[in-house]
Amino acid sequence: EPDVTIVSGLRDTVVSEGDNVTFRCQVSHENARDVEWKLQDVALQNNEMNEISVEKGKIHTLTLRKVTEQDIGTVTFRVGPHTSTA
């Protein structure tokens, strides 16, 4: 399997309480496995508050819905041994 790397990393974002925020990370190969999103070192799952998806096979997105003050912190995207944070 080819080593999947991060082509375009996460960007720091400022958002108002109650708004949605989307983070994007582009990887080098489609259908990347061993992908993980974290907020403050807590693994995120796809649910009503967090939307995790893949666009065009290589662009991994995380949308945090209706953020609160408790959501302040570091967002991490990991694919294999490579990580990007914002």
TrEMBL record:
Q: What is this protein called?
A: OBSCN protein
Q: Lineage of the native species?
A: Eukaryota, Metazoa, Chordata, Craniata, Vertebrata
Q: Which UniProt keywords apply?
A: Cytoplasm, Disulfide bond, Phosphoprotein
Q: Name one GO cellular component term.
A: cytoplasm
**Residue ranges of domain Ig-like in the record:** 2-86
Q: Where in the cell is it found?
A: Cytoplasm
Where does it primarily localize?
Answer: cytoplasm
- Could you tell me the superkingdom of the organism this chain comes from? Eukaryota
Q: Which organism is it from?
A: Poecile atricapillus
Gene this protein is translated from: Obscn_3
